Write a sequence for this structure.
């Protein structure tokens, strides 16, 4: 499971063209073993895969968690990935039998309920001291490496749970999350969905400046001791199969600043999934168009209070953008694995591709880019409350990086890259949507600037007061 290149590259310690064998007197690994014993333990190293090296840097509990996530992904997701991706488009509200079985097994093993410890969730109490976003990123990376679509099927529902957690309403957590945990552990999938995107307001839901100049499409009108919801939500991951949906709606006659968060049961009268989209990638997970026609929701299902939706939305996005960055790392790592396997097993002119220096240079670039992206996620996810600039930067940087790494792998594989069985074209399709998730990458770049605007504005004001600088007049 922990082999450096699990797709078939040889583990035999042979050298490749242009490099000395590891046991040669001039090899760095051999040379370091000849150091004085007092410093050898600090500077020398043994052969080890990147995965093993990175995992060893984690706290012990998270090492075990990451190993469990990889084992589940390798056992259940990877074998089914290509088959489920190639299935015909599923009818609304249906999950392919193979995917449903994976959902059930994930539930039984606690992968659908491990944000919080028992009795509300299934997280082990020894894991709970580590930030939930860090644990989620470790899991998401391993699942995405095996299959982007199945990863989204299993993990999008944590986004739906986000506003409930961010609300701080313990009675609501007990009432909504505990029954879901119990059902999932029995192997009866109970999923949540997160509904913010509207037909006329996509990125406006993730950007305050855009929301300030737009009109909300889903509106909540007061009726008795509850609210009537009318409007549409689109591209809602798992929206047609979720049992409960977190829905953001503006109060009647007001704008996005009145956004209120509602917990809506899928069986509510007037709620229907009009269709699911035939998507480019991540096809194992549905993207639903939801229609709300006088859907009544009681006051008890208001999450975070009236007009508290915008705050919950921004808090949830700050938490969820890091897992999207982790998705990208998993997809990039899968591309690196495929490229290394291809380079080591395919021959050109009687020589393995790995013997050619330009192939080695390309692989080194891909490996470095993927490792840097992973380090950015891990460093950012160590905080319980990642700030907007950090989360947004990781999101756009890593998803753009994943696309570049996958394209480099496709260049290396040539015509083999477009064949479904080699998985690269699927990776390309799956990765493209990560540049749109949680706000487009352009919106996330602007979010970085927004988070620093006080400092930038003060500097700009100071420059105006002092007069034009040379660079301003150039």
């Amino acid at each position: 499971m922990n082999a450096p290149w699990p797709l078939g590259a040889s583990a035999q310690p042979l050298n490749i063209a242009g490099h000395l064998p590891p046991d040669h007197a001039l090899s760095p690994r051999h040379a370091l073993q000849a150091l004085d014993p007092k410093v050898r333990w600090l500077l020398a190293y043994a052969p080890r895969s990147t995965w093993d090296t990175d995992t060893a840097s984690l706290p012990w509990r998270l090492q075990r968690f990451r190993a469990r996530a990889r084992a589940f992904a390798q056992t259940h997701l990877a074998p089914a990935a290509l088959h489920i991706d190639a299935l015909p488009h599923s009818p609304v509200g249906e999950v392919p039998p193979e995917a449903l079985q994976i959902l059930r097994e994930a539930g039984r093993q606690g992968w659908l309920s491990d944000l919080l410890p028992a009795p509300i969730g299934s997280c082990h109490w020894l894991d709970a001291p580590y930030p939930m976003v860090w644990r989620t990123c470790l899991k998401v990376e391993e699942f995405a490496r095996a299959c982007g679509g199945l990863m989204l099927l299993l993990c999008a529902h944590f986004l739906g749970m986000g506003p409930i957690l961010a609300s701080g309403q313990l009675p609501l957590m007990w009432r909504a999350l505990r029954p879901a945990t119990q059902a999932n552990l029995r192997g009866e999938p109970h999923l949540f969905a997160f509904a913010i995107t509207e037909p006329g307001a996509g990125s406006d839901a993730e950007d305050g400046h855009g929301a300030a100049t737009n009109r909300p499409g889903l509106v909540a009108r007061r009726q008795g001791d509850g609210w009537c919801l009318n409007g549409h939500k689109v591209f809602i991951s798992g929206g047609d199969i979720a049992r409960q949906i977190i829905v953001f709606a503006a109060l009647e006659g007001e704008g996005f600043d009145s956004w209120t968060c509602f917990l809506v049961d899928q069986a509510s009268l007037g709620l229907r999934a009009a269709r699911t989209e035939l998507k480019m990638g991540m096809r194992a997970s549905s993207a639903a168009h939801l229609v709300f026609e006088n859907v009544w929701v009681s006051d008890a299902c208001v999450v975070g209070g009236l007009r508290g939706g915008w705050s919950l939305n921004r808090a949830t996005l700050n938490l969820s953008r890091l897992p999207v960055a982790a998705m990208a790392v998993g997809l990039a790592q899968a591309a690196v694995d495929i490229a290394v396997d291809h380079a080591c097993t395919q021959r050109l002119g009687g020589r393995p591709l790995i013997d050619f220096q330009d192939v080695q240079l390309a692989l080194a670039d891909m490996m470095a880019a993927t490792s840097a992206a992973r380090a950015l996620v891990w460093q950012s996810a160590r905080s319980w409350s990642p700030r907007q600039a950090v989360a947004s930067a990781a999101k756009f940087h890593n998803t753009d990086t994943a696309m570049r790494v996958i394209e480099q792998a496709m260049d290396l594989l040539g015509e083999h890259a477009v064949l479904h069985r080699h998985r690269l074209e699927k990776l390309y399709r799956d990765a493209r949507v990560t540049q749109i998730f949680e706000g487009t990458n352009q919106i996330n770049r602007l979010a970085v600037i927004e988070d620093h605007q006080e400092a930038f504005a003060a500097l700009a004001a100071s420059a105006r007061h002092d007069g034009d600088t040379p660079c301003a007049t150039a």
Notes: Residues 309-345 form the longest helix (37 residues).
